[in-house]
Structures are given as structure tokens and as C-alpha cells.
Specification:
This protein has about 260 residues and is an alpha+beta fold. Helices cover about 60% and strands about 15% of the residues. Helix 1 packs antiparallel against helix 8, helix 4 runs antiparallel to helix 5 and helix 8 packs antiparallel against helix 9.
Length: about 260
């Protein structure tokens, strides 16, 4: 009886933990999207962009819509808005290689060539691991691992042969860590979606100030398409930002769009 009680308690705790990953789906009206795709195929990029923007507004965000919208802006030679929408698509689906490739091509057309500071290898490895799949894909990994984990716990609880029970419990422990990793990765990506602390410069040229005032000292000049991290939003009409190479300064709110 003690073994059965342990089994039920373990299942209950895992269900509580697993429930944190649920709830990320988005529906898209296929007919309207087909019309937008048809306009894009006919090289009517401006009209297609309006359709995709309408879909995002009315039907909800989706990586595919942002990706297609980014392609439209790229074809229209609006590089900052192409980068903005590729970044939004990547935020929703960080494991998509097509999005990454198109983003790299678009960023290659910006004036300011930035080399981000290097990370420790284990930090880069961890970021790559977390971002190798989207939230929904991590959720399905968690579902599959969770089912297998329960099977291992079941084997341990109800089989009598020692070797079989060992296989069951060791497998359950490994799969438990897979469930933990999947939940953590999904929650980490969800936090990035909710915080939205990065932005893209959309104004052609921006003078970065030492303080939130037009009369303050100009520190340097930045051009459209550059990515920044928002550090301070407390001053109306201004944002303190950090650039990928580490520089910090203030710029007008209208010169950026949040990813």
C-alpha cells in the first residue's frame, strides 16, 4: 500500500508541474491567409502586407504570419520592419532555420554592423538548447516524456522482478528531468514573450543621448534596423536602451518598435 500511495503522490505532483506548459495555440483563418499568400505570389507585396497585418490584428499572433509579413517588407526594401517582423516570428518559433536565415540576410543590409560580445560556451549552449524548439513543441516533448515517465513509475510500482523495477525507476528519473527541461524551456520562452524588452530602430537615423532630453549630449548615432534592449521606460517619450555591442544611451520612443 505504501508503494501505491507513493505512486499516486508522484503522479499528482507531476500533473501540477506539467499543467504550467499548457495554453499556446493560435488559430488562423485559412481562406484569408490564402488570399494574402496569393497576393504575395503575385508580387503585390504592399497589399499582401496589409492582409497579413489584418490577420495578426484580428486572428492573433503566429510565427508564420510574422515571417510572411517580414518577407513582404523585405521585398518592399523596408529593412527595419522586415527585421522587426522576423524577430517577432523568431520569438514565437526560435528553432526555425528559415526565419534565422532571412533575419541574417536582412540584418546584413543594415548600415551599422554590430558584433555582440561573446558569451561563455556553456551560456551559448544553454540558450541554443532552450531555443531549439518553440513553446508548443516543448509542450509536446513534455507530454510524450510525461507519459513515458508514468509508464516507468507504473512498472516500478506494480512489477515484482527487481531488474524490471530498476529499469522502470531509472527511466522514470531520466524522463522526469526531460519533463523539467521541457517545462523550464517553455516557461523561459513564455517569459520572453510577456516581457518584450527588445526593440528595433525604425527611424533612419537616431542620435543617442546621454539623458532623456533633446538638449543633452549626443553620444553617438545609430541607424535603422539595429536591435536594442530596453533598460528604462520610466521617462515619458524616452527609453534608455542598451545596444548589442554594450553601448547605453537614451532615445525618443517614436524611433523604436518593440519586438
Amino acid at each position: 500500500m505504501k508503494r501505491y500511495g507513493l505512486f499516486i503522490t508522484f503522479v499528482f505532483l507531476c500533473l501540477c508541474m506539467f499543467s504550467q506548459t499548457v495554453g499556446t495555440g493560435t488559430k488562423i483563418e485559412g481562406a484569408t491567409k490564402e488570399a494574402a499568400d496569393k497576393l504575395y505570389g503575385s508580387e503585390k507585396y504592399e497589399e499582401a502586407a496589409k492582409y497579413y497585418e489584418s490577420l495578426i490584428t484580428n486572428c492573433g499572433v503566429a510565427s508564420e504570419l510574422y515571417y510572411n509579413l517580414g518577407n513582404c517588407y523585405y521585398k518592399l526594401d523596408d529593412i527595419p520592419h522586415a527585421i522587426l517582423n522576423y524577430e517577432r516570428a523568431l520569438l514565437l518559433n526560435p528553432g526555425d532555420t528559415d526565419i534565422r536565415e532571412n533575419l541574417a540576410i536582412a540584418r546584413g543590409k543594415t548600415i551599422d554592423k554590430v558584433t555582440p560580445p561573446s558569451e561563455m560556451f556553456f551560456v551559448s549552449w544553454w540558450h541554443n538548447l532552450v531555443n531549439m524548439m518553440s513553446i508548443s513543441e516543448w509542450m509536446w516533448v513534455a507530454v510524450f516524456a510525461f507519459i513515458l515517465m508514468l509508464s516507468g513509475v507504473f512498472v516500478y510500482a506494480f512489477f515484482s522482478r527487481l531488474m524490471v523495477r530498476k529499469i522502470g525507476v531509472y527511466s522514470a528519473f531520466v524522463l522526469f528531468f526531460v519533463v523539467l527541461l521541457s517545462n523550464f524551456s517553455a516557461c523561459s520562452q513564455r517569459r520572453q514573450l510577456s516581457e518584450r524588452s527588445s526593440a528595433i530602430i525604425i527611424s533612419p537615423v537616431v542620435s543617442i543621448k546621454s539623458s532623456p532630453s533633446e538638449s543633452s549630449t549626443d553620444l553617438f548615432v545609430i541607424h535603422e534596423g539595429s536591435k536594442v534592449e530596453i533598460l528604462d521606460s520610466s521617462v515619458k517619450g524616452w527609453r534608455e536602451v542598451k545596444f548589442e555591442e554594450g553601448k547605453i544611451g537614451w532615445l525618443p520612443l517614436e524611433s523604436i518598435e518593440v519586438i
